[in-house]
Specification:
five-stranded mixed sheet; disordered N terminus; 2 domains
């Protein structure tokens, strides 16, 4: 019996050691994941995620298949949580750790999720960010612009805005430093009279000039090929005058020229308002995107898609705090040098035809 007890005691000692070691090993912890659709009322939800519950569900339906995990093993993060993590990040510009804690996931998971979801949403841009295709669409957009200040044939207001980023590092970080001395992407956008984005170009660093970005864009090539017929864009003096891109006169003299300038400036106003609304919906665009440079484009395009969806659902513009408002004003003050008219007759002919044949008769 004594020998058997000795053997039993040894086995128990071994089991005890195994039990101690297993308990000392770091156990995988699962944080509690809040159901934010139930926790917040409609207004509280919109303030935290910048979209209504209805709009979030609409987006979720579009991207669930692409972002969902193939199985639900190991408490896989649901598509709903993934989208809310991303929206919270875009709405606050916070560190990923803060966003992760807000929804109850690990920081590394939040990092992967934000980029994955932004890519999925950005992939919807052919549906939600597009120039008019048919004559009826172009005519409808032109009519909406005409109601602002009676400017004819306009189907888009164009401008560039700076999207703040963290220091990109690498071999050439200074090309991202803009005239305001912070790092950014200079993003070109075209919007309609209802502040919906129709075209976004997000691949040029902050030191790039507005006119350079336009000259190297597909939208310029499409207008030159006549794809938009006799319709035109309107822009500020940061662009050179073209037959399809009408800018204001530097020194208007006659009554018709002054009327043209006033109409052009008022009709161009939607793009400036669009930038303000866009950045108030997603303050990360002004506070700074803390991701690698190669991931910035997906984030910007994703916010553009979400902005248009918000417009589609008639979402109210969220209230921003003083810090966010100051950041938005700061990044919006980065202006390019004025580009003087080249004086080419072919470029000026359309503008002076508008002044002489149209605005001269409105007096």
């Amino acid at each position: 019996m004594a020998d058997l007890r000795g053997v039993l005691t040894d086995d128990e000692d071994i089991l005890e050691v195994i039990d101690i070691v297993s308990h000392r090993r770091a156990q995988k912890k699962y944080q509690v994941r809040t159901n934010h659709f139930e926790k917040w009322n409609d207004e509280e939800f919109r303030q935290r995620f910048r979209l209504s519950k209805q709009a979030v569900n609409f987006v979720l339906e579009k991207i669930t298949e692409e972002i969902s995990h193939p199985t639900q093993r190991n408490q896989a993060i649901s598509a709903e949580i993934m989208l809310l993590v991303t929206l919270r990040y875009l709405a606050t510009g916070s560190f990923l750790q803060v966003v992760a804690d807000f929804v109850g996931i690990h920081k590394s998971s939040a990092c992967r999720i934000v980029y994955k979801v932004c890519r999925a949403i950005a992939g919807l841009h052919p549906t939600f960010i597009k120039m008019p295709v048919t004559d009826d669409e172009a005519q409808m957009i032109s009519t909406r612009f005409y109601t602002i200040a009676r400017f004819p044939r306009c189907i888009g207001a164009i401008d560039c805005t700076h999207i703040k980023i963290s220091s990109p590092g690498g071999n050439q970080p200074e090309i991202f430093r803009n005239r305001k001395n912070f790092f950014s992407f200079n993003v070109q956008a075209i919007c309609d009279a209802d502040l919906k984005l129709q075209n976004i170009v997000c691949r040029w660093p902050g030191s790039s000039h507005d006119s350079f970005i336009f000259n190297n864009s597909n939208i310029r090539a499409k207008f030159e090929r006549g794809e938009y017929r006799n319709y035109i864009l309107i822009g500020d003096s940061g662009y050179g005058i073209r037959p399809f891109l009408i800018t204001p006169l530097a020194n208007p003299i006659t009554a018709a020229e002054n009327l043209f300038n006033e109409s052009q400036i008022r009709t161009r106003n939607p793009i400036e308002r669009c930038f303000g609304v866009w950045k108030r919906r997603f303050p990360i665009l002004a506070l700074g995107i803390r991701l690698k440079v190669e991931k910035v484009e997906a984030v910007v395009i994703a916010t553009g898609v979400l902005h248009n969806i918000a417009c589609m659902f008639n979402e109210e513009i969220p209230v921003v705090n003083p810090q966010e408002e100051a950041a938005i004003q700061f990044v919006n003050e980065v202006d390019d040098e004025i580009v003087r008219d080249s004086g080419l007759v072919v470029n000026n002919s359309v503008r002076y035809q508008l002044i002489n044949d149209y605005f001269n008769r409105l007096q």
